[in-house]
Design brief:
This protein is an alpha/beta fold and 372 residues long. The protein is built from twelve helices and 14 strands. A nine-stranded mixed β-sheet has the order 10-9-8-7-11-6-12-14-13, with helices on both faces. Strands 2-1-3-4-5 form a five-stranded mixed β-sheet, with helices on both faces. Mean pLDDT is 93; it is low at 363-372.
């Protein structure tokens, strides 16, 4: 039977699951809390890809106290042999009396099978506690399962009047040091970082996380005509940090060959639009992609409906010009009623900058967000 405290313990499990972000992908984020007689006995989370799952960690910490207890988990326990044994087996062996899960796992080898095995063994199962929050937590995993494409975060820094560069294209620095440090933290948990050739030429970026995070992102440059200079920071570090240059069918062979000779992977696409690129990154098992610009590239991802999350830093400065350096150039919309409105919004101050983060509703690939 549902308990009034189920939401309290599940919220604790969701917070525990968040600790694995950046380290477990392409697996989902999962947290577990073992409760007996209204007290937390143990907690656990999936901490690294290939490592023990959240339920196993929590049950090992609980020991014999798990017998007759309730296990709160943010995702349906797995019932198949993967890199680790099925979590359902661990729950049954531990003797838990009740399992409360936030949501069903859509992964085909689970997809309700974990709940069925628990119920068949006489374990009481409740599903759907804080389900919407669990869907948001695992949006990247759910999108990848549903579409085969990674989760896309659009990031930019801009002035108070909406410019991402001065009229000359110079953009260092719009945001402050702490905002830039926050961007490096985000980069450190990405599978890929995408920019257009315009940004690569104007800024000569490294696109690395400094200091390093739990993941090393593959740098991706959308460069239809293979114009990326061979003396750029990106090419000079291609043998240390993966670099993909996505080119069109008309890219000159000698330019492509020079890049390849310097350790660059050249990806030939029919066109350098978001869909084909995301399909390829998804085939490579990537879960999270950060798109850093410029305006044309960001606009193309918005136009394609492929942006799932937005992370924007607004600096208290005014550029004042009238030019092309705006964050999302694209086609745009005909009326404000059609404009994309963010949900699950968070606003914070980072030194003098304002950081705005939110999710896009239309093509999240996340069931249940409309209820938040």
């Amino acid at each position: 039977m549902p308990s009034p405290d189920d939401g309290l313990w599940m919220r604790r499990a969701l917070a525990e699951a968040e600790r694995g972000r950046g380290a477990v992908e392409p697996n989902p984020l999962v947290g577990a809390v073992v409760v007996l007689n209204g007290e937390v006995i143990a907690v656990g989370h999936h901490a690294r890809f290939g490592g023990p799952h959240a339920e196993v960690v929590a049950l090992e910490r609980a020991g014999e106290l798990a017998r007759g207890a309730t296990a709160f988990v943010t995702l349906e326990p797995c019932c198949h042999q993967g890199k680790t044994p099925p979590c359902v087996d661990a729950l049954l062996k531990a003797g838990v009396a009740r399992v409360v899960a936030a949501m069903r796992d859509p992964f085909p080898k689970v997809a309700g099978g974990g709940f069925a095995r628990l119920r068949a063994a006489g374990v009481e199962v409740e599903v759907g506690v804080l389900e919407a929050e669990a869907h948001v937590l695992n949006g990247p995993y759910l999108k990848r399962i549903a579409t085969g494409r990674p989760w896309v975060i659009a990031k930019w820094a801009m002035t108070l009047d909406g410019k991402i560069a001065a009229r000359t294209g110079q953009s260092s620095w719009i945001s402050g040091p702490r905002s830039r440090a926050a961007v490096h933290e985000v980069r450190g948990r990405m599978d890929a970082i995408v920019v257009g050739i315009g940004t690569a030429l104007a800024d000569d970026p490294q696109l690395t996380a400094r200091p390093p995070g739990p993941r090393v992102a593959t740098r991706v440059v959308l460069d239809t005509h293979a114009r990326l200079p061979i003396h750029s920071h990106l090419v000079n570090t291609a043998r240390e940090v993966p670099l993909i240059v996505a080119v069109g069918e008309g890219a000159l062979v000698d330019r492509v060959d020079r890049l390849v000779s310097l350790g660059v992977e050249v990806l030939k696409l029919r066109d350098c639009s978001p869909g084909p690129l995301l399909d390829e990154l998804g085939r490579r098992g990537m879960t999270n992609v950060l798109v850093e610009g410029g305006g044309r590239v960001l606009g193309s991802f918005f136009d394609a409906g492929e942006v799932n999350e937005v992370d924007v830093f607004v600096a208290p400065i005014i550029e004042g010009g009238s030019h092309e350096f705006t964050p999302a150039r694209g086609r745009g919309v005909a009326s404000m009623a059609e404009a994309l409105r963010l949900v699950a919004l968070t606003v914070s101050q980072v030194d003098g900058d304002v950081r705005i983060r939110g999710l896009t509703r239309p093509r999240l690939g996340v069931v249940g967000l409309d209820s938040t």
